[in-house]
Amino acid sequence: MSHVEHIPVMVREVFEGLHIRKNGTYWDGTFGRGGHSEKLLSLLSDSGALFASDRDAAALAAASRFEVDSRFTFFHSSLVEALALVPEDLDGFLWDLGVSTPQLKDSARGFSFAESGPLDMRMDQRQSVKAADLVNGLNERELADLIYQYGEERFSRRIARAIIEKRRQAPIETTEELEDICFKAYPFKKKHRIHPATRTFQAFRIAVNGELDQLEKALPLALNKLRPGGRGVVMSFHSLEDRIVKHTFRQFDRNGTHRVITKKPLRPSEEELVQNPASRSTKLRVIEACQL
Ligand SMILES: C[S@@+](CC[C@H](N)C(=O)[O-])C[C@H]1O[C@@H](n2cnc3c(N)ncnc32)[C@H](O)[C@@H]1O
Q1: Residues with Cβ within 6 A of ligand 1?
Q2: Which of 87, 104, 134, 286 has the fewest CB atoms below 10 angstroms from its CB?
């Protein structure tokens, strides 16, 4: 396991958004290493409660430091699974989507092309399908569609073709191999703002973890768990996630049951961007359940 720390992002904006009631009941659905949960617990009285969940076993291990706190309960579960375990009438929930820095930096997890490791990418290690299964198992059309749909990668067809060609020699097993395939498949290498493997890695990660399905299924259910005046804060890290959050919030606002607090997503301050460049693509949205 890696010993890299995760710096919690947009902490001031998260807690301004959550409007913590000190005796309230909250849910942190993406516990990670517990940075936001720790702050949340510090704002609750003895009568408050924090339910936290994450599907990564490393988060479960990190949560053990709060074991002695009777206000804290942890579930090793996905957002969708946790919905059956978290109580109704929440005063607020926080979802800080995506992957944590320790997950990214742990080469054995295979999330990053900057780290050499197996093509795994599972957030939940109990799950059987890994990125290598998709990279080596899908046909060319399926690969191109996946890379285009979840990576918004305009060279998806070239990359899919290159994967198939490489696979003919031997299965693709490592992050380095996939990175090399993307790099070589890309035209005009020097002109690109981001690394040629960025979008393809994002696409396989989203597919392996069913990230968009999770969000689409869980978000409406979580919004219905808020008690009147309760707040939902969601931070997303790419446009596909943010689109789902924006549309779901807008739909609940139109129905009149909830009110969108952030007409436009909040972004990290200049100061935070300097201190924590990993926060750069964060978009934070806040919604409140109406007093009926
Ligand atoms: C950016 S990190 C959260 C960091 C955390 N706020 C902190 O301060 O340490 C995102 C976490 O959410 C988890 N995660 C992402 N999507 C999830 C889902 N659908 N269900 C459960 N956990 C999820 C990941 O495993 C990861 O640990």
Answers
A1: 6, 8, 30, 32-36, 54-56, 59, 78-79, 96-100, 123, 214
A2: 87
Number of structural domains the chain divides into = 2
Query: Is ipTM over 0.90?
Result: yes
- Cβ proximity of 65 and 34 under 8 Å: yes
Last residue of a domain, one of 187, 209, 231: 209
| Inside any domain, residue 6 | no
Cβ atoms of 81 and 217 closer than 8 Å: no
**What distance in Å separates the CA atoms of residue 42 and residue 62, rounded to the nearest whole number?**
17
State pLDDT tens for residues 211-259: 999 999 999 999 999 999 999 999 999 999 999 999 999 999 999 999 9
Mutate to test the pocket of ligand 1, among 36, 100, 215 (most ligand atoms within 8 A of CB): 100
In this structure, the number of other CB atoms found within 10 A of the CB of residue 83 comes to 18
Would you say residue 2 lies in a domain?
no
Q: Are 56 and 72 part of one and the same domain?
A: yes
